[in-house]
Amino acid sequence: MPVTALVSAKSCGVTTSALALTLASKRPSLLAECDPAGGTLRAGFLQGEVGAGQGLYHLAAAERTGPEALAGAFASHLWPLDEAGHRKLLPGLTDPGQAGALSRTWPMLSEVLHVMAEEAGHDVFIDAGRVALESGRLHTSLTPAPLLHQADLVLLVVRGTEQSLTLARHIIEPLRTELAERGSGMDALGLLLIEEGPARAHQVADALKTPVLGALPFEPAVAGFYTNGGRPPRGYARSGLLRHARTATEQLEAAASRRRIQQQYPVRTGSVQISGMLQRLAERGGRRG
Questions:
Q1: How far, in Å, CA of 37 to CA of 278, rounded?
Q2: Which long-range contacts (CB under 8 A, 24 or more apart) does 247-250 make?
Q3: Number of folded domains that form the chain
Q4: Looking at the domain assignment, is residue 94 inside a domain?
Q5: Domain contains 288
Q6: Reported pTM
Q7: Nearest to 14 by CA among 164, 166, 169, 183
Q8: Of 236, 289, 286, 287, which is closest to residue 29 (Cα–Cα)?
């Protein structure tokens, strides 16, 4: 299964899109909320059910102990998004000031996420937030660059509006260059279109010279539920957002498979400690409290 990182040029529905893909997947799935600007799901979708003692920040200290400690901390800090534990969340930062402590953690966390995808069979989605650039490169502390470098796919989330496309034009080439020089190749980059505004998928692809790998309808009521929590809107389980997100997960898997075949990527294998710990994790859901 692929590891897919989602980013945007500005606040553009990255978290909502990543959550929709995670909830809609037909396979076990995992959302890692890795936006250095801070996570939003614990206060919104989870309505404060998850405290500050749970989540991404606590992996930094474990990483300094070693791979097995990190794998154990990762497993203990996942939160189930459904009763069966088939869909899991690694809650994000509660304070953007914590991001600096994770600079050493990102590469090993990336390995853990790939083990979850390739050995435990999860669809893995990374909410990497807004792209921050410094001298034309990914900013080393304001963007989780190693997660993007090692992802199977990197999706730039855009809307079909002129404002969104204008902002995306400024970062699409630096992103492409970054992935070509430091990542798995510029063809890892694709677009996820939120269908708000007049531009259709083929027009967006032409404007940004990048393929649209998936599209989600603009549904403010469902998006508001994901962002703010509360009661699900009427007809939520049959919403177009979830239906299209399910289709998008299949399209993303197909795109990642084509890349692997074309570039003859070997299947990544994690360390013995990480693999053993996460195989045990795959046999049970995340924890609650």
A1: 27
A2: 247/214, 248/21, 248/24, 248/192, 248/213, 248/214, 248/215, 248/216, 249/21, 249/24, 249/25, 249/26, 249/27, 249/29, 249/123, 250/26
A3: 1
A4: yes
A5: no
A6: 0.92
A7: 164
A8: 286
The C-alpha atoms of residue 248 and residue 187 are separated, in whole angstroms, by 18
**287 pLDDT higher than 70:** no
Q: Which domain holds residue 254?
A: 3-282
Say if residues 28 and 86 touch (Cβ distance below 8 Å): yes
Contact 155, 6 (CB under 8 A): yes
DSSP-assigned beta bridge partners for residue 215: 193
Amino acid identity, position 263: Q
Residues comprising the chain, all counted: 289
Question: What is the CATH classification number for the domain harbouring 98?
Answer: 3.40.50.300
Tens of pLDDT, residues 209-220: 999 999 999 999
- Tell me which residue of 86, 77, 84 sits closest to 42, measured CA to CA: 77
pLDDT above 50: residue 78: yes
**Tens of pLDDT, residues 19-64:** 999 999 999 999 999 999 999 999 999 988 888 889 999 999 899 8
Cα-to-chain-centroid distance, residue 101: 20
Inside any domain, residue 143 = yes
pLDDT at 281: 56
CA dihedral for 269, 271, 274, 276, sign (positive or negative): positive
Three-class DSSP category at 150? helix
Is 266 a domain residue? yes
